[in-house]
Amino acid sequence: MSGPPLVELRDVTKVYGQGESEVRALAGANLRIDDGEFVAVMGASGSGKSTCLNVVGCLDQPTSGAYLFRGVDVGALDLDQLALLRKHYLGFVFQSYNLLARTTAVENVELPLIYRGVSASERRARAMQALSDVGLESRAKHTPAELSGGQQQRVAIARAIVTAPQMLLADEPTGNLDSARKVDIMNLLVDLNRTRKITIVMVTHEPDMAEYTTRTVLFKDGVVESDSKPGAEDRTVVRSGSDQSKGLP
Amino acid sequence: MIWATILMAIREIRRNTMRSILTTLGIVIGVGSVIAMVTLGRGATAKITADIASMGTNLLIVMPGAERRGPTSGAASPLKLDDARAIEREVAAVSKVAPTSGRSALVVYGNKNYNTGVTGTTNEYFAVRGFTMALGQSFSDAQLQGGTPVCILGATVRKELFGPQDPIGATLRVGAVPCTVVGVLSSKGQSTFGSDQDDFIVMPLSAFHRRIAGNTDVNTIFVSAVSDKATTKAKEQISLLMRERRHLAAAQQDDFMVQDMKEISKTLGNVTGALTALLGAIAGVSLLVGGIGIMNIMLVSVTERTREIGLRLAIGARGSEVLLQFLIEAITLSTLGGAIGVLFGLGISLAATRALKLPFTVVPDIILIAFAFSATVGVAFGFLPARKASRLNPIAALRHE
């Protein structure tokens, strides 16, 4: 696709707090993500990878520098406009699923559609479709407490894709799962990326998970330390296990 | 969108059934007690007004003696029959005048005796006081003028002395005077002040004067004004006339009084009205407390559901939509409580008015006010928690443990 890239970070900094407690979560990060990519964002704790995901996901705005989403300067938008961007273009998957308790799977999946003003009958139809896309149509009437962790994460993915977003942001989506479920979820994400052309940005600290992606970006001290692109086609994966353990206590 | 939000709020309320019921209870009790208090108060007012009306229509009562107590120069002289005639003749605003004189006496029939009041008066008395004849007839002109010892019984006296028997034509003794029963009055029941209005017998005034009192004094003159609106005017005119007849100098106070029953009824109505307002206001405080209960629960709910709020914000809900959702939850809780409270209050007041033998009247304005107030409580006390929810930072909210 020609035109502006989907995501472009230019010298983005993000500073939390003031004075002595000041934390520079991002310190001049540059990153460009094109349509159809499946990007793993890696890095040690405090490297800025989560902040990067928040900025890219329009949940947070840069302190300085520019974040262009499809050429639009996100830094110049107000909170409602950010919400509008998230509503129409983005989907989110979290480590802890964040499903509404005591609410059935299909109702959870319907939630984003409520904010889009979709009629009740169409909501139900689209939510059921999304659930069947993740292979859970038989569990539609179950509440999260009645589902396994892997199933809950698949419901969460259904919720993220029910709006047909352009980009899916996943924050450690496999972090709470055992290895067999991790594989399930990663295969599901790869499938969504390939068949639906949904761009996926996934924060993870597990190199195994990064292997499923088309590109790996490694953060260190608030900047991009290494990037497997250019050459995304050959699926070169930067192994960064040693860097990772350094940041942990 | 609004409708979907309301449905969402209802679902949320049902998810925490017990908590919702307890939260709502505050409002239920608040609205219920306001309605019960006001309905009871209005019932009491209505009863007092009706009771006073039952004493007679457009009734004025003229009695000797000064209205204000204090150092007065001796006892006031009694009224005379001529006073009553003069009022009837000279006061235009008056339609009927009934001079009365009375005392208590032992009434004996067969082996039964009963202590009651004896009133000597004219036939006008029945019209002025609103009595009708249940049995027999009122006095004939010959009986009234000739001082014939006949009497008409109040319903209570009839019951005490005759039970189910027909008393017409029977002779009883009033004190030492034998007296023939010619009629029985219909029952009026208790007066506002708790006395039995049927516990007396009536004789022609002339007979009473001659045979029982031994003088020609008149204790009380009952006067009926020509219309509802004429009572004030009639009162003024009677006062002027009586001052003249009793030869009072301009500086002297009245040594008689003219009571306007409508005025008394109005005064009593004002008192009960003020009491009703006071009780209603006290009950209103509990509505306020109920509102604080809702705020408390909504604040807890916002804290408890921080992650949910974060998620909603992340998937594209605007702050205003989150605000609306929590506000609608609070309003739904409070109006639900208000609706139940209305039914509860009506139930309580129905039971209470039955128990207190008061008339039960639904007061629609107070029901509307109480219900509207409960909705307002929802908005007022739901706003703070809702705003807190809408201002959460989505990132921090999503990480909230």
Notes on the structure:
Chain A is an alpha/beta fold and 249 residues long. Helix content of chain A is 34%, strand content 24%. The longest helix of chain A is centred in the C-terminal third of the chain and has 17 residues. Chain B has two domains: 184 residues, no CATH class; 168 residues, no CATH class. In chain B, strands 3-4-9-6-8-7 form a six-stranded mixed β-barrel. In chain B, strands 2-10 form a two-stranded antiparallel sheet. In chain B, helix 3 packs across helix 8. The interface between A and B is medium-sized, with 28 and 23 residues.
CATH topology of chain A: Rossmann fold
Give the helices and strands of chain A as they follow along the chain.
EEEHEEHEHHHEHEHEEH
Named at the architecture level, the CATH assignment of chain A is 3-Layer(aba) Sandwich
Distance between the termini of chain A: 44 Å
* Number of domain modules of chain A: 1
Radius of gyration of chain B: 33 Å
Biggest chain pair contact, residues each? A-B, 28 and 23 residues
Secondary structure tally: strands of chain B: 12
Quick rundown:
Chain A has 249 residues and is α/β, with parallel strands linked by helices.
What tags apply to this protein structure?
heterodimer; A: 249 residues; alpha/beta; Rossmann fold; six-stranded mixed sheet; 8 helices; 10 strands; 24% strand; B: 401 residues; six-stranded mixed beta barrel; two-stranded antiparallel sheet; 12 strands; elongated
